[in-house]
Amino acid sequence: MNPIIAILKEHNVSDAQIQELFQALTENPLMAMGTIGQLGIAPEKLQQLMALVMQNPALIKEAVSELGLDFAKVEAAKAQLQKS
What we know:
Structural class: mainly alpha
Helix content: over 70%
Number of helices: 6
Radius of gyration: 12 Å
Largest sheet: none
C-alpha cells in the first residue's frame, strides 16, 4: 500500500475520504489542502506526511494510480497553478 494512503488510514480516514482527497488533488490542489485540514490529522503527523511527499513526490503519482485516478489531471492542475 502507498505510504500516503497508509498514513491516512492509520488516522481513521475512510476510503471515501481518501478518494475524495485525491480527487480534489487531481482537480484543484489548493482545494485539496483545505480537505486535508478537515481530516483531523494531528499537526505532527501532517508534517510527517508532508515531509514524506516532499522527499518522494512520486508517491502522489503512485497513490493516484492506486486509487484509479488520472495523474494527467494532477499535472494539468499543477501547470495551471504555476501560471497564476
